[in-house]
Every structure is written in C-alpha cells, then in structure tokens.
C-alpha cells in the first residue's frame, strides 16, 4: 500500500496564481524525485461547518480559499527519502522564503494507507 502526505492551507485569493505557480513547480520536483502522484485542489464545494470543517481548521479568512493537497509514495521510507531531497532543492527556495500562504496555519501529516482501490 502507498504512503500519503496530506496538506490543508489557506491561500489569500490575491495569491492563488502565485500558489499555482509554486504548486506546479513543486509537483514537478516531487515527481522527479520519486513521488507516485502529486495533487493540489482548490476548494469548490467546501461548507463552513458548525463545529468542524476545512475552513475552520485553517482559520479561513473572508479573502482566502482553502487548498487541499496530497502526495503519494511507494512507502514511508520513500517519502522520507523524497522529502529530504525536496527540502534541499534550490528551485523551491524562492517560495520557501516568501510563501504565498500562511505556513503557520498549514495542517499536514503522513498517513499509512489502509484501503486503496
């Protein structure tokens, strides 16, 4: 079964195009370095829940949109290998120093797949 990294971020609407540029580059790098898939998805039908929701989780502001992303790998070991290389990749440095979203509100984690079709 594959291993999955998942991310949820709040992106200012004014930065969506810059975020897409960053995500396109990041996706190419992740795939080049060994990820199986890389997906970035802009919220389209994501209600603000009474108790929990994606918007609540990232403390979404009126001028922001939620982005849900995931990357798949052959295994956790492969994820660790790819992630180490990605963090050292110079092509992403300009975005790391000036991210088009608030990294403090990013939710992320690694997940072991239990069902896969």
**Adjacency order of strands in the biggest sheet:** 2-3-1-4
Which geometry do the CA atoms define? globular
The CATH architecture would be 2-Layer Sandwich
User: What is the gyration radius calculated from CA atoms?
Assistant: 15 Å
Amino- and carboxy-terminal Cα gap: 10 Å
Computed structural class: alpha+beta
Note the quaternary state here.
Answer: single chain
Strand content: 25-35%
Q: What would CATH call the class?
A: Alpha Beta
Work out the helicity level: 25-40%
Number of domains: 1
User: Secondary-structure element sequence?
Assistant: EHEHEHHE
Q: Give the averaged pLDDT, no decimals.
A: 96
Organism: Caulobacter flavus
Protein name: DUF1428 domain-containing protein
InterPro entries: Dimeric_a/b-barrel (IPR011008), DUF1428 (IPR009874)
Pfam families: DUF1428
Question: How does this model look, in words?
Answer:
By secondary structure, this protein is α+β, with helices and mostly antiparallel strands. It has one domain (3-112): 2-Layer Sandwich (Alpha-Beta Plaits), CATH 3.30.70. Helix content is 34%, strand content 27%. It has helices at residues 16-33, 54-57, 76-88, 93-97; strands at residues 3-12, 37-42, 64-73, 107-112. Strands 2-3-1-4 form a four-stranded antiparallel sheet. Helix 1 crosses helix 3 (76-88). The model has no long low-confidence stretch (mean pLDDT 96).
């Amino acid at each position: 079964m594959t291993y999955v990294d998942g991310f949820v971020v709040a992106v200012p609407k004014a930065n969506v195009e810059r975020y897409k540029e960053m995500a396109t580059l990041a996706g190419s790098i992740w795939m080049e370095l060994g990820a199986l898939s890389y997906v970035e998805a802009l919220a389209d039908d994501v209600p603000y829940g009474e108790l929990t929701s994606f918007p609540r989780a990232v403390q979404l502001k009126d001028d922001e949109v939620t982005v849900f992303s995931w990357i798949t790998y052959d295994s956790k070991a492969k994820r660790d290998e790819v992630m180490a290389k990605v963090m050292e990749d110079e092509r992403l440095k300009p975005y790391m120093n000036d991210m088009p979203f608030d990294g403090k509100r990013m939710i992320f984690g690694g997940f072991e797949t239990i069902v896969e079709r």
